[in-house]
Amino acid sequence: MNPRLLIASLYLICFHLGQSQIIRNKTTLLMGSRFDITVVAENEQSADQFIQNAEDEIIRIENLISSWKTDSQISEVNRMAGKAPVKVDLEVIELIERALTLSKITDGAFDISYASMDQIWKFDGSMDSRMPSPDEIRASVSKIGYEHILIDKKNQTVFLEHAGMKIGFGAIGKGYAADRAKNMLIKKGVTAGIINASGDLTTWGRKPDQTEWMVGITNPLNKTKFFSWLPLADKAIATSGNYEKKVIIDDLEYSHIIDPRTGYPVRGISSVSIISESAELSDALATSVFVLGVEKGLFLIDQLEQVECLIVDSNNQMHFSKQLKSKPE
Ligand code: ADP
Ligand code: MG
Question: I need a surface site. Which of 75, 196, 251, 273 has the fewest CB within 10 A?
C-alpha cells in the first residue's frame, strides 16, 4: 500500500476509535453509600453492561462482608465470637490479613475489631455535653483487640477469641469494593474509568480525548464541596473527614473517629486524604492517620512507598507527606 495512504487510513482509524468512545456515568446507593461508577466504552449499551457488572460486584462484596446483613459471612464470624471458628471465603481471609497488617504497622490505631465498641459517644448533637466517666470509656473498648482475631489459613477459618468481640469493615470495605470492581472491569477490557465510593475513589486509563481524569479532594468542612482538584492516573484517593459529625465537651471539639486503644474520640484533625495505588489502602490509611494524629501519621506515611498524604488540622493548617511536599505546585 502507498505509505501516504497507509498513514491516512491509520489516522482515520485512530480518529474513528477516539470518536467512537464514550464516557458513561451512573450514581447508585451501594453499601449504604453513594457510588459513582464511570466507564469509557464503545457505546452506551456496552457501557451500561459494564456499569451493571461493577454494581453486581460491589453488591456481592457487601453481602460477603457487611456486618449489617445478618446472613453475611462476617455476621456469622461475629455471632460465633468466643465460641468457634467460622469458615469463610479465601478473599475474606486475605482482606482480614491485610487489615491485621495495618493494625500492626499503626500500632493498633487501625483495628477492625473497633466494631465491638459501646456507643457511648453520640455525634448527632444528642449528647448532653457530659463527658463519659473514665470507667465507662475504658469499658467501651474492652472487647477491642486485633491480636485476638485468629486466622487459620489452612482450614480457611476466622475465630474471634473472646465473646462479645466483633469485626467491621467500615474503614476499608468501600475501598476494597472499589478496587475489586475496577479490577473486574479491567479484566473485561474496559480501558478507563472511575469507581468513586463517596469520595474514596480509584481511576484507571485516560479519557477518550487522552486527558487524565481530574478528581476532587473532598472539603473537610463540607462533604458535598471540593477542596482542590488534581489529575489522578491509575491511582486511588480516599478522604476521612470530620465534616459535621463532632461533639463539643467543655469547649473542646472531638471528632467522630474514636481511638480504639483509649476509647476517646480523636482531636486535632479535620481531614486526612491519602493517595496510593489502591482504594482499600487509601481508605484504611486515611482512618489510621486520623487516629494517629499529624506527627505519627506523617511519620508512618513517609515510610511507605507510593503513598502520599494531605492532612488538614482543626486550625485549617495543611500538612503534607514528604513526597507531596517536594512536588512543585
Ligand atoms: P467515612 O465513613 O467517611 O468513609 P472513614 O473512612 O474514616 O470515614 O471510616 C470511618 C469508619 O471506620 C467508622 O464509621 C467505623 O465504621 C470505622 N472505624 C472507626 N474507627 C476505626 C478504627 N480505629 N479502625 C478501623 N475502623 C474504624
Ligand atoms: Mg475511609
Answer: 251
